[in-house]
């Protein structure tokens, strides 16, 4: 990926921006004795405020000072800048899918699962997302999530349709939302699906993943001995991508501009009533309850595909203990606090907006006791069949290359999906070979 190809000009251009964000890294931590914690959240967001609450509670419990740095745009690029300066933060809370990339950069310290207080309370499924290609653990699991459909319930009732039980039902509901004026304003200005279908950070692949897994497809498969083979041209995967191309191109039920959008824009598109079906994780549920109205939205499971399922993408966030920190004992203490019942509950933030723990990974935490909104249960039930990115040395270029191809067949309605996926399969095979994982 581009992480390994950053030039000196990019580094110089970012230097001022990172400094302005207050990322002093390990040198800052050693000078003011504060544990520096980076989290991939927009600054001043509700999620960033929750991260500060977590850090403050840790400080109160341990006496260890903390400094939270919330960054969102170009998060990984800014980490590269800090690494180049040998000035990484002490702790990074970031996506599980970034583990392989950070391991390959030499940024992470291995984690002794047995020596991590509370590690035996964490779900084994969550530990798989903290496992590197060499079988070692490189993070403490912190948060998990699966995916479901957040749907405009008021629209569905307006067009007099039942919750979708099949992909055919889902497509028909999208057509009704597009053609039957579900918002009642007398204009044909709504879409069925809203989708973050752009290529930034691999979003097109990220969005398609849940339908691919719901149809029994995949991107790569394990062949034994820590090796993998590309399977993205498997008929089940092709069928899922074709289903989505049909929504873009035949029924035209996806919001305009989706092929250029990331999640930040797509959240707003859904909130503005420009579309009524959003395949997404639980982290936006509380936000939509506040901005749209609790009676207007519902959470429905992703229907099983015609050739497989059920399944959705599984992911979350890990607590990464970064290499080179002068505070290894405090890094471990923070990780142990974050995975403890107290830390998990703070991160969950009950039913309020700003959760940084979507589904708790600590099995002693009763989610129903913390959250009264029953819609969270749909995500929790979907997690039982969630599929995490496999522990290849670096998943990031596989997701990005897949996103580039999938986005292209959605943007170009003349594109042949099977041909494109055959070509993508060749590219993924080459990537696996370059990672010595084939």
TrEMBL record:
Q: Which GO terms describe its biological process?
A: maltodextrin transmembrane transport; maltose transport
Q: Does the keyword ATP-binding apply?
A: no
One Pfam family here: SBP_bac_1
Recorded hits in CDD domains, A to Z, give: PBP2_TMBP_like
Keywords noted in UniProt: Signal, Transport
| InterPro entries in the cross-refs | SBP
The GO terms this record gives for MF are: maltose binding
The cross-references to PROSITE patterns, in alphabetical order and at most eight, read: PROKAR_LIPOPROTEIN
Signal peptide interval: 1-20
What's an example GO cellular component term for this entry?
ATP-binding cassette (ABC) transporter complex, substrate-binding subunit-containing
Q: Which family does it belong to?
A: Belongs to the bacterial solute-binding protein 1 family.
Recorded protein name is: Carbohydrate ABC transporter substrate-binding protein (CUT1 family)
Q: Which organism is it from?
A: Nonomuraea fuscirosea
């Amino acid at each position: 990926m581009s992480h390994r190809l950053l030039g000196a000009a990019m580094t110089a251009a970012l230097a001022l921006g990172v400094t302005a964000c207050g990322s002093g890294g390990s040198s800052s931590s050693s000078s003011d004795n504060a544990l520096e914690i980076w989290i991939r959240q927009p600054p001043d967001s509700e999620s960033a405020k929750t991260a500060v609450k977590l850090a403050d509670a840790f400080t109160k419990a341990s006496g260890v000072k903390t400094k939270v740095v919330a960054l969102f745009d170009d998060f990984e690029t800014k980490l590269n800048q800090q690494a180049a300066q040998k000035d990484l933060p002490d702790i990074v809370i970031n996506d599980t899918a970034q583990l392989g990339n950070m391991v390959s950069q030499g940024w992470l310290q291995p984690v002794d699962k047995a020596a991590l207080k509370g590690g035996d309370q964490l779900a084994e499924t969550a530990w798989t997302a903290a496992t590197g290609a060499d079988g070692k653990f490189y993070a403490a699991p912190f948060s998990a999530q699966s995916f479901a459909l957040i749907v405009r319930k008021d629209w569905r009732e307006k067009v007099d349709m039942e919750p979708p039980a099949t992909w055919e039902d889902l497509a028909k509901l999208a057509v009704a939302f597009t053609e039957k004026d579900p918002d009642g304003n007398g204009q044909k200005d709504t879409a069925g699906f809203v989708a973050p279908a752009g290529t930034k950070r691999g979003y097109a692949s990220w969005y398609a993943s849940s339908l691919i897994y719901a149809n029994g497809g995949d991107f790569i498969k394990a062949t034994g001995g820590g090796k993998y083979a590309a399977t993205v041209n498997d008929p089940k995967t092709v069928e899922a991508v074709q289903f989505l191309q049909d929504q873009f191109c035949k029924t035209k039920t996806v919001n305009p501009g989706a092929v250029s959008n990331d999640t930040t824009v797509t959240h707003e598109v859904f909130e503005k009533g420009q579309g009524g079906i959003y395949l997404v994780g639980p982290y936006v549920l509380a936000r939509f309850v506040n901005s749209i109205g609790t009676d207007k939205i519902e959470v429905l499971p992703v229907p099983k595909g015609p050739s497989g399922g059920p399944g959705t993408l599984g992911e979350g966030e890990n607590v990464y203990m970064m290499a080179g920190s002068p505070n290894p004992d405090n890094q471990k203490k923070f990780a142990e606090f974050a995975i403890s019942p107290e830390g998990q509950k703070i991160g969950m933030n009950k039913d309020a907006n700003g959760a940084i723990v979507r589904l708790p990974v600590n099995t002693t935490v009763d989610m129903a006791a913390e959250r009264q909104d029953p819609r969270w249960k749909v995500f929790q039930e979907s997690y039982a069949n969630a599929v995490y990115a496999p522990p290849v040395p670096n998943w990031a270029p596989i997701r990005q290359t897949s996103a580039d191809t999938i986005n292209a067949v959605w943007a170009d309605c003349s594109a042949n999906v099977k041909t494109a996926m055959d070509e993508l399969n060749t590219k993924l095979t080459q990537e696996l070979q370059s990672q010595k994982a084939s």
